Description:
About 30% of the residues lie in helices and about 20% in strands.
Amino acid sequence: xxxxxxxxxxxxxxxxxxxxxxxxxxxxxxxxxxxxxxxxxxxxxxxxxxxxxxxxxxxxxxxxxxxxxxxxxxxxxxxxxxxxxxxxxxxxxxxxxxxxxxxxxxxxxxxxxxxxxxxxxxxxxxxxxxxxxxxxxxxx
Length: 140
Ligand code: ADP
């Protein structure tokens, strides 16, 4: 367990642009069957995170969801907890418990030195899959 990395248990990231409407983000979340969307700017740099409850909360308002950009309601940088491919899964699990969130974007540093590119996603589901593999002795 202490040497299993994010790279061994990860999912593909689903990203939307910061100018996407809340309505379209809800559609993307359903179509892609994920619980968290990552928001990127025009340079594909990570700028935000959208959870199911962020979108539900926005839906409670009186505004038309087609006209509100996700950038208004997302959790934004620098408040996003991230991880890298080479990080240990146990460290990710600790972050998820500590921050009470469902998943983390897996990021790589952008060459320009400012910001992160999203290269993957790791969630409680991936960690549950690891638990099952451990129970089945598929990992020594
Ligand atoms: P839900 O809100 O559907 O229960 P989460 O528990 O993952 O899902 O999200 C709780 C809050 O934390 C949301 O406002 C969401 O934007 C934010 N959040 C989710 N993932 C992250 C992350 N990796 N870093 C920082 N904030 C996050």
